[in-house]
Amino acid sequence: MRTRNRLSAKGAASLGAGKFADGAGLWLYKQERERGKWVFRVTVHGKRREMGLGAFPDVSLADARKKADDARAMAQDGLDPIKEREKARRKAERNMHLLNDIALDAFEARKAELKGDGKAGRWFSPLEIHVLPRLGKMPVAEIDQIDIRDTLAPIWHDKAHTAKKALNRLSLCLKHAAALGLEVDLQAPEKARALLGKQRHETKNIPAMPWPEVPAFYKSLNDGTVTHLALRLLILTGLRSAAIRFARLDEIEGDVWTVPAERVKGRVGATQPFRVPLSGEALAVIEQAKRHARDGFLFPSVRKGVISGATMSRHMERLGMEYRPHGFRSSFRDWIAESTNTPHDVAETAIGHTVGGAVERAYKRTDFLEQRRALHERWAGYLTAKADNVVRIG
Prior knowledge:
Layout: H1 9-14, E1 18-23, E2 26-32, E3 35-44, E4 47-56, H2 61-76, H3 81-94, H4 99-110, H5 125-130, H6 132-135, H7 145-152, H8 160-179, H9 188-196, H10 214-220, H11 226-237, H12 241-245, E5 252-253, E6 256-259, E7 274-277, H13 280-289, H14 311-318, H15 328-339, H16 344-350, H17 358-363, H18 369-385
Antiparallel strand pairs: 1-2, 2-3, 3-4, 5-6, 6-7
Helix pairs in contact: 4-8, 7-9, 10-18, 11-13, 16-18
Domain Tyr recombinase: 204-376
Pfam families: Arm-DNA-bind_3 (PF13356), Phage_int_M (PF22022), Phage_integrase (PF00589)
GO molecular function: DNA binding
């Protein structure tokens, strides 16, 4: 066995230029009396290797011996200590990614799935406002359930819906980090949820007008203004307000309105636009709206662009209603469920929902246009005549 510990700390400091063995593969290479480096010589798989252990005198003799012992143990296990150190270095660098960077990268990767490529900021804002100010500069590998709990606790009860969104977005960021090869605790968000406890204020659905009340409200929208006409078309089609507000004349051909897929939430990622059958009543509303049209848009604002997302809501607020325009989708869907025997897939497609998984959709490519045309005509008839009879749609 080789003699070990030949050098002393004081003796090493007094040595001039040269190479000096401490034993068992540890050497001190000195360029001059005050400066040098520690080197560990080892044979791995029959190949001679020299592994630098740090500069002298920054690395003490005791520290150099400890590093040599660790490297020697690896070599005895058949591992190359130089390669293992490089692996550890790359792993440490990989896991130093900050949440700020991961969140931006995750957002960029999901833009194609988001309405308008996420330009409205609704996907990123819960992170940007409530998570990143506190955790953004932390390496994702270090984020645990305590960090998440402490970050979301201030809004967990008072802003329940926003807090849930923030937790969901953070979970997606951690999954994105894991996909990049980073070591993260994917269970941390659920652990944090358990620590935060049940929320006192549960998320409430958007208030929807009961469908028996809709005809009377529809008939009250009779002054021919942009707001009234937009609300009428929204109720008739069952679409969301963005699809209505940005409606263009060149999207309508005959009695079919082809809405670009990016304007119909819930059909994000669809390769085909969404065709909406227009009832006779809907066509009459569009005809009235044409006199307001500007730059191709059916519902322009007073100044430029189109009416805002709040325009229709404010009209209902002024009437003292708690209901909101978005709720008419539920009104329409409830009417279908309670007053017709419309097949589920047809009913869901009527309000712009994507039906079935990716594989199922690949084989079943129909959008039930003809069945929906009959359904929309009967909905329009109900709205304008306030018919209470049960409609059967085959």
